[in-house]
Write a structure and sequence with these properties.
This protein is an all-alpha fold. It contains five helices and no strands.
C-alpha cells in the first residue's frame, strides 16, 4: 500500500476503495478522492456533449446531403438518438444542460465543424435551427434544404 495518486492513479484508486470498504477512513486521500468524484461528473458531461455533437452532425449531413440518404444512415441516426436517450436516463442530472444556451452553442459549433470536415460543405447555419424536443423525438428528421 501507499501508491501515490501521481505515481499510478489506477493502483491508487484500488487502494482507496479498499481503505474505504475496510473503514480505514483516516488513511484515505480525501482531496484526491473529492477531485476524482468531481471528474466523474465532468466526464459524463463530456460524453453527453460528444454524443450530441456527433448526432447533430449526422442530422446536418442528412438535411444537406439528401442524395446520400439511405436506410443504413437512418438506422445510424436512430441508434445515436437511442444512445443519447439512454445516457440521459442514466444521468438525469444532465438534462438541464440541454436548455443551457451557451452549452448548446458550444455543441453546435462542434457539430458544424464535424459536418464541414466530413462533407466539405460550408453552408450550415450558425445556430441550431432545431428544437431539443424535435432532435430527441423518436422519428423526427430535418427537412431537406
Amino acid at each position: 500500500m501507499g501508491t501515490t495518486y501521481e505515481a499510478d492513479v489506477a493502483a491508487w484508486a484500488n487502494e482507496q476503495a479498499m481503505l474505504l470498504r475496510s473503514g480505514q477512513l483516516s488513511a484515505i486521500d480525501i482531496e484526491h478522492i473529492a477531485e476524482e468524484i468531481e471528474d466523474v461528473g465532468k466526464s459524463e458531461q463530456r460524453e453527453l456533449a460528444s454524443r450530441l455533437a456527433v448526432f447533430l452532425a449526422h442530422l446536418l449531413k442528412w438535411q444537406y446531403q439528401p442524395e446520400r440518404q439511405s436506410a443504413s444512415w437512418q438506422r445510424t441516426i436512430k441508434e445515436q438518438r437511442r444512445a443519447l436517450a439512454y445516457h440521459l436516463k442514466q444521468v438525469p442530472s444532465l438534462k438541464p444542460k440541454l436548455s443551457d444556451t451557451e452549452w448548446q452553442e458550444y455543441i453546435w459549433a462542434d457539430a458544424v465543424s464535424m459536418a464541414i470536415e466530413e462533407t466539405g460543405m460550408g453552408c450550415f447555419p450558425k445556430s441550431c435551427p432545431w428544437s431539443v424536443h424535435d432532435v430527441l423525438s423518436d422519428n423526427w428528421l430535418p427537412a431537406h434544404e
